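Job type: complex structure
Entries:
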Amino acid sequence: MADQMTVPVGAVPAAGPAERRRRLWRRFRRRPMPMTGLVLVAAFLLLALVGPLVTGDPVTQDYAATLAPPSAAHPMGTDDLGRDALARIASGARISLQAGVLSTLVAMAAGIPIGLLAGFYRRWLDPLVGRLVDVTLAFPFLVFAVGLAAIIGPSLTGVVLALGFAQLPAVIRITRGEVLAIKEMDYVSAAIADGATDGHILLRYVLPNCAGPLIVQATVAIPTAIIGEATLSFLGLGVQPPTPSWGVMLTVAQQYLDVAPWLAIWPGVLIALATLGFNLLGDGLRDVLDPRSGL
Amino acid sequence: MSLLDVTDLTVGFDTEDGHVHAVKEISFSLEEGEILALCGESGCGKTVTAMAVPRLLPPHTTRLSGSIRLGGRELTTLPEPLMRQVRGSEVSVVFQEPMTSLNPSFTVGFQIAEVLRRHENLSRAAARGRAVELLELVGIPAPAQRIKEYPHQLSGGMRQRVMIAIAVACSPRVLIADEPTTALDVTIQAGVLDVFRDLRDRLGTAIILITHDLGVVADIADRAVVMYAGRAAEQAPVEELFARPRHPYTLGLMRALPAAAVAGPAGRRRLAEIPGMVPSPLTDPDGCAFHARCPRRQDDCLAARPPLVRHGPAHLAACFHPGHPGEQP
């Protein structure tokens, strides 16, 4: 066509998704806080996934060395039953990771569809869902989780479900808010004008475009669930002994704070570092994924 | 029977401030291969009129009466699932904002292919092939590469061409273009208008062009409806309209064109303006809505509403005291 010259091909540099990812990564890498978070999360994942394979059995008891201080044989010392603290820390990391990831998956799997529908069908579904979310958000997170765990029963499955449901209202609220904003976008109007069905608009137009905030929410939900698991297990409502969990280890450790303080220090420090890592990573992702950052 | 017959279309909206009269008793028809311009200033009802055709107005607050017939089929009472099939395949829309009208999460090729898969049940591969052809049709160079790109990689003019490609993908009978060039650079505008002209010539698509730009009307439209405060003020073939405008509002608009600017006292050229404000759409008083701003008004303008009267073949104007046929704008 004659007017092709009015639109120079080179006007916009052709940047593929790979190029965009590279730019995002460069942007991310330059910041110290998100990178610290990434390193901490990577270390946590390594500990949880590889640790239990190399540290030995976390439940083998050695009555010859109970409450032993850190040594070459037991780098983190032993507990009151002579179990190797390092092995229990590594296995506990795996429990923490399971609780964090699985409960977040539960919250996302249930919360995203509810939030999508509530935001999309504002006239009939939203008032109902909105009130329910408001009521549940009125309870402090841990009180809600403790109550649910007490109902479901103490086990890892119980912890995952309790924490998942306790995180549900936040996921619903965030998804709903995103849907309300995206619903007004021109590309949704355009999709309606092209004859798209509601289901199509939700899955192809709304969901992919609210993925950024949901990814960030996941990085907040995982550390919350890690702390939640430790708390529930500490209170006896979560993972049960002898299964090692950082919360269970703290319960035991508090009895021996004066003679074996390291038993409290290791799980305490690791809970703090793991949650800090996820939170720093989440902050970094939020900055990088923010559409207003111009990338 | 025309391709599209809109008869006595009246559209209102229930709002917190009361009932808004957006469009009142508009009638027009559209022939195959015709480009009809709906023009007027912001709030005159041109977009509401056009969007009523594919029923894209908010369903719960819109009060609509009158008849919209596409190829003899009444659209106002068509069940929603059938209406959904009409949208995108028989009636398509190109929106004003190319920068935000494409889904940022998918490539443009995917988005074009999706419409084809939805309405024509094409396979993935066939839809992809058609997407390349469509991008070529709307004048995008290297279409085979472009379909792999995301909207943010394209300029505004390119995106508007992609929007047009999506709109015409299923060969609609009526294409509604809502200010399609307003958000674009002047240099890009002409190219996009050429795309519309080309589509009409090649595919025989009838186009309803919504615009406030009389230059665009003169450039591309066959016929124009000038709207004011929700009503048709004047309707005529474009050459007739520009040669012999009869309604004082049309005359005022044409005097406001930069080309018509007259030399002022200091030697500087000044644009003529139409004094006053558009009446509030919350009320619908008797009499001519343009009365308060009209240089030709007389006492009878306030007493009754001037009906659309024939002033020549296919030339209608709603004025008791129209400009003379010989009067130059």
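Summary: Confidence is low (pLDDT under 50) at residues 1-15 of chain A. The radius of gyration of chain A is 24 Å.
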